[in-house]
Amino acid sequence: MTAGMLLLLLLPLPHMMCKPDTMMCSKSETFHNVYQWYKPGDIVIGGIATHIAVLFPMISFKTHPSQEPWNDLIVMTKFYQHILALVFAVNELNENHKILPNVTLGFHIYDSFYDISYGSFEPEEDKRTDFPSFYRMASNQAFQYQGIVQLLFYFQWKWVGILTSSDDDGEQFSRNLEPLFSQNGICPAFIEILTDTLDFSDFEQLFSVSLSKIPFFLDIKVNAFVLDGEVLSIMWVAVLLRVTTAWILLSDVAYKGKISVGKVWITTAQIDFIFTTIQRNWDIQMFHGALSFNIHSKELPGFQTFLQKTNPQRTKADGFIKDFWEQAFECTFLLSSNDPEEGNKLCTGEERLESLPGPVFEMGMTGHSYSIYNAVYSLAHALHTLYISRFKHRENQNEGRISLSDVDPWQLHLILQTISFNNSAREEIVFNQHGELDLGFDITNLVTFPNNSFVRIKVGWFDSHAPLGQELSFDQYRINWHRNFMKVPPPSVCNDNCLPGYSMERKEGEKFCCYDCAPCPEGMFSNEIDMDKCITCPEGHYPNKGQDQCIPKMTSFLSFQETLGIILTFGALFFSLITAVVLGIFRMYQDTPIVKANNQNLSYVLLISILFCNLCSLLFIGQPNKVTCLFRQAAFGVIFSVAVSSVLAKTILVVLAFVASKPRNIFRNWMGKGLAPLIVSVCSLIQVIICVTWVGTSPPFPNVDMHSKTEEIVLECNDGSVTMFYCVLGYMGLLALVSFTVAFLARKLPDSFNEAKFITFSMFVFCSVWLSFVPTYLSTRGKEMVAVEIFSILASSVALLGCIFLPKCYIIIMRPDLNTPSRVREYLHCASRDRTRNNLYHRDH
């Protein structure tokens, strides 16, 4: 039965670069193409396949190129599976009575040296308005770009070599990939263009070109190569690697051990690992471990059996199989036009396809063949939809036999745009709005064997429908890496990664992937490799010694449980106890001359104020809170002012007692009981006013200091107003300075028990302590600052207690013989006599 219409199916087969240039031929000059396969049917599906290559084109110019036979034809044996995939799909459809019943499909497959938009394609070529009838059985090239970049980023390969073809596709590939590289921190170490006019007959040119590529393989930093192009590209790279390695190792031993063909080859979907008959003995292991983006495929039930049954006897109409069989199995049929060459074996037809190595023929379903199979089924389902529509129309109109001979192409386009079905692998087939069958890309790992066979192991998948950034799913533990690698996965970087604790420092004049590593500045960290800059830790954290992670800061305050707090607490309580004991002694011996001579009430006030000075230091220990912060500095200032005012009053009384002893002295009337309380009250009241003003205007408050100490969060009392704090200290210092000055001037006056001398020394110690306190206080933070203030409080309190009262306690307890009225009078008489003699001596001289 004659065909009702011809549907042309454009097979997405690799583009062969090595083809003769042909001119336009007239019908009378057409050359009979023996490479075809025809099977009649009600509907014939046409196929254009790339099956033959001419490696040594020698045009004589004696006859028209289209009429001149080619003697050096090379069969791309691996592509024969694509032809068989179309035949398998048609046969399967003819046996399936659920699709196109009573309709027989046929096919007519021709060989061609040209292809139209192979496999994945550039997004710019997607012009549905210009080519509404053009359907592609592979994903958009833009998704492949993203997949390559995500794969490189996954392994942190940032210094990458790019090998691409010299045609427009290669230029487009480089142009689209480079910005994606830049966005993801990847740099091309080089972009090398592979020639598209490779002439295998010109060995001098092969060597010359190969030698020019040596530097790329000497660079041990570049372990990842992205290879884009067509089928010839992998052949050219194989030649390049073989010639380069052999020539260098034989000609210059200096290169030995430096050059390695062990690289990670990342190939695009346009590339297939194929060797021609002249290359079949080459070692495919140079590509061991390659990672390939392949058009998605699944194994089809029955396809392997179909391949196993394929032989020249079963397919007489197949114009491709004879040359395929001869070159695949390196044998010759007796009926060949050329006599068998000496040493060639005869083809029996019983050879098995499954015995062929992978570069020659694959038994597994390739992505190209899977796309062809789905394309045939898409056409069949579109025709079936039209068939069902006409069947229903026939039933309504009571018409005769259904015919599809008058189908217009536009009718199929409308159906193909909305068609959806599951193929025999149970995968949904549906075209998107761009006329693409978008099934994503398989990522396979090439595992080679010494017998030149290989298997592809699926290690990942790029799903273009997945959420952004999650398109790539990958299992790196299934990868077999090249055997030359000492470390897997191998690094491919311009320099070693900057480890955590360092940041990248750009090198002037070089690509951004080449950089130095600088240690993080103090107080900053980096916790990832190759960080652009170090960062500060979050609030409440600090970098560890290696500056590669942040550690939570510990809260810090002077607690009662720590050693320093225990020592200071013990000191405060101990000195308070001593003060209380001294107060008890003075109370017990209040009627003795030494106690009476020291202004009994004023001594009590001074001792009690010293006692409270010691105890108020305890307010500085423990976790700060509102109450302790509010009152501790004010209590310290007021109590100390009372103590220093009492000392000042004692000093003034000593001076007045001596002056008032002279006849008719005006100060005699001042020597009443109310003078000392007046001095203490007035001097203390001024400090009280200062403290009340401070608490009323800028009261101290609990504060959390995150920044003063690197490793600690300081819990402290903020003084509120630093000015008021130093006013309190300044006023207290003024009282101490006045007391010291008066006591110093009165140190030689004849008082009882050298009171003025002891006061002078005590105030000297007191002033020294607080003068040392100020710079020390300003230079410390945290618990150390609090400890400094507590120490100053205790030291100055002990100075007052020890210098003024301990000598008196010694006399009271240890020398009671000196604590009698007669001894006091005797001491005062001797002191007065000595002073009179001194005055007369100074007057005479």
From TrEMBL:
Q: Kindly state which keywords UniProt assigns to this record, in alphabetical order.
A: Cell membrane, G-protein coupled receptor, Glycoprotein, Membrane, Receptor, Signal, Transducer, Transmembrane, Transmembrane helix
Q: Does the keyword Lyase apply?
A: no
Which PROSITE patterns is this protein grouped with?
G_PROTEIN_RECEP_F3_3, G_PROTEIN_RECEP_F3_4
Q: Where is the signal peptide?
A: 1-18
Transmembrane stretches, by residue range? 564-589, 601-622, 634-659, 675-696, 723-746, 758-778, 790-813
Name the GO cellular-component terms: plasma membrane
Belongs to which family?
A: Belongs to the G-protein coupled receptor 3 family.
Q: What is this protein called?
A: Vomeronasal type-2 receptor 26-like
Query: What organism does the record attribute this protein to?
Result: Eublepharis macularius
